[in-house]
Amino acid sequence: MYNGLWTVEFISTIQNRTGKGVLVISGAPSEGRLLGGDSAYYYSGHCKIDNNKLSGMIIIIRHDPTGISVFGDIDSFKLSFSGQVDKLHFSAAATIDNNPQFKIRIVGNKKEDL
């Protein structure tokens, strides 16, 4: 039900920066694998879904040296997130592990099943 291709939007608390990308979820609801990216960064991580609650961790790594993330000019960072999910949408709050003052909201919309 959750496994598939999702579009994602990242909304930062820093200067109202936003970003968009794609994310593949596989292996959910237990230990789901996350893979995705956008024009400047790729994403790799894991998630767990239980009773429509989503939680996990994702590492964001820059592949385009000219790209800027929603948090600014950072090469890589790890996000911890939690939120709500149904079969077509999710919304989660996330923070950078070593800088919890940096917060974003992640909104996902499912586009295709795996």
Task: Explain what the structure shows.
The chain has 114 residues and is mainly β. An eight-stranded antiparallel β-barrel has the order 1-2-3-4-5-6-7-8. The chain is built from no helices and eight strands. It is 0% helix and 68% strand. It has one domain: Lipocalin (Beta Barrel). The radius of gyration is 13 Å and the shape is globular.
Features:
mainly beta; 68% strand; single chain; Lipocalin; 114 residues; eight-stranded antiparallel beta barrel
Named at the architecture level, the CATH assignment is Beta Barrel
Helix content: under 10%
Oligomer: single chain
CATH C-level name:
Mainly Beta
Provide a quick synopsis of the model:
By secondary structure, the protein is mostly beta strands. The protein is built from no helices and eight strands. Strands 1-2-3-4-5-6-7-8 form an eight-stranded antiparallel β-barrel.
